[in-house]
Amino acid sequence: NALDAGRAWVGVVGASGQLQGSVCVNVVEPWLEDGAYLTEKWNYILPAFRRNGRIGAALIAFCTTMADELGIPFLAASMSHTKGGKCRSYERHMGQPVGSVFFYSHAAGA
C-alpha cells in the first residue's frame, strides 16, 4: 500500500482552517509493465471554489512537480460520463489526452 510505504503525498490549497482543495498522489508499479508512474487517489476542489481556475492549476502543478522530482510520468484520469471542468483543466495544463479508458458496470447497464 503506497500510503503505508511513504510513497504517497497530499497537496493542499487554502489558508489554515480554510481548505479550498486537495490532491493525493501515489506511486504505482504495475506488475505487467516496466517502470512506475504517479497517479492521483483524489483531486478535489470544494464547490464554492470550483470557478477559481488558480486552485485547479495549483493542484495540477503539485502533481506534475512531484512527477518531475521523482523522474516518473504522471497519469490522471476522470471517471465521468461527461467531459467536465476537471477534464478541461487537465487539457489546459497537460495537453491533449492519450489513450482511452473503458468502464463497464453491470448496474449502470454498461
Q: In which range does the helix fraction lie?
A: 25-40%
Q: How do the strands line up in the largest sheet?
A: 1-2-3-4
Strand content: 25-35%
Biggest β-sheet description? 4 strands, mixed
**How many extended strands?**
4
Rounded to the nearest angstrom, the radius of gyration is 15 Å
Query: What ranges have pLDDT less than 50 throughout 5 or more consecutive residues?
Result: none
Compressed to H and E, one letter per element, the order equals EEEHEH
How many helices? The count is 2
How far apart the termini lie comes to 30 Å
Shape field: globular
If you average the pLDDT, what whole number results?
83
Secondary structural class: alpha+beta
Tell me what the structure shows:
- With 110 residues, this protein is of the alpha+beta class.
- Helices cover 25% and strands 27% of the residues.
- The protein has 2 helices and 4 strands.
- The protein has helices spanning 53-70, 85-94, and strands at residues 8-15, 18-28, 37-45, 74-75.
- The protein has a 4-stranded mixed β-sheet with strand order 1-2-3-4, with helices on one face.
- A hairpin with a 2-residue loop joins strand 1 (8-15) and strand 2 (18-28).
- Helix 1 crosses helix 2 (85-94).
- The mean pLDDT is 83.
